[in-house]
Amino acid sequence: MIKNSKPAKGTIGFVMRGLDGEHFFRVYDKDHNFVDYDITHHDLQVVIIAGNHDSPTRLEVPTPFLAAIDMTVVGQVQRKQQHIDLESLLVPLHNRQGEIAAWCLAVPFLRPNDVPRVDGASDAYLAGIDALYQQVTALAKTKRQKGQALIAM
C-alpha cells in the first residue's frame, strides 16, 4: 500500500481500512493510479447523513460494509410500527478508550413524509422539522452522561 504524507485537503476519495486495521484515504488520480494517504486518527469514526440531493436508499445500501470500518450512514428517517425511530438518528461517538464521549444527532435531509404531523401549524413541514429535532434532542439528553457532548448534523 502506498502511503503519502502530503495533505489530501480538497481531494475526493474514500476512507478505507486496511488489513492492518488502520484507516487511509484512497483516491484515483489523474494518471489512473490509486493513491493512498495516511489518516493520523486511527480511531476515526465517520457519520454520513443524506443531503437534499442524495438518494437516501442508495446511500444506505453499503451500510453493513461501512459499519465494519466504523462508518455510520443515515440516509433516511426510519419508522417502527408507523412511529419515527428516534434511536436510529442517534449515533454514539467513542473516545480512544471505547467510552461514549458524545452523541451525534445524525438527522438526514428531512422530506415532508419524514417529519411528524403537527396539527394546526401554519406550515406543517417546518413545524414537523422543528418537532423532530426537539424529539431527537430530548432523547439524546436522556442518554447523555456528564461530560458527553451533543453534536447535531
Measured as a percent range, the helix fraction is 10-25%
Strand order of the largest sheet: 1-2-3
Number of helices: 3
Structural class: alpha/beta
Strand fraction: 25-35%
Estimated radius of gyration:
18 Å
Distance between the termini: 33 Å
Say what oligomer this is: single chain
Give the uncertain stretches in residue-range form: none
Q: In this structure, how is the largest beta sheet organized?
A: 3 strands, antiparallel
Which characteristics define this entry?
single chain; alpha/beta; 3-stranded mixed beta sheet; about 20% helix; globular
Description:
- The chain has helices at 56-60, 63-67, 124-143, and strands at 14-17, 23-28, 34-38, 46-49, 71-74, 79-80, 83-84, 90-94, 100-105, 149-152.
- Helix content is 20%, strand content 27%.
- A hairpin with a 2-residue loop joins strand 6 and strand 7.
- The strands form four sheets. A three-stranded antiparallel β-sheet has the order 1-2-3, with no helix packed on it. A three-stranded mixed β-sheet has the order 8-9-10. The chain has a two-stranded parallel sheet with strand order 4-5.
- It is α/β, with parallel strands linked by helices and 153 residues long.
- The chain starts with 13 loop residues before the first strand and ends with a strand.
- The model has no long low-confidence stretch (mean pLDDT 85).
Indicate the topology.
Elements lengths: L13 E4 L5 E6 L5 E5 L7 E4 L6 H5 L2 H5 L3 E4 L4 E2 L2 E2 L5 E5 L5 E6 L18 H20 L5 E4 L1
Parallel strand pairs: 4-5, 9-10
Antiparallel strand pairs: 1-2, 2-3, 6-7, 8-9
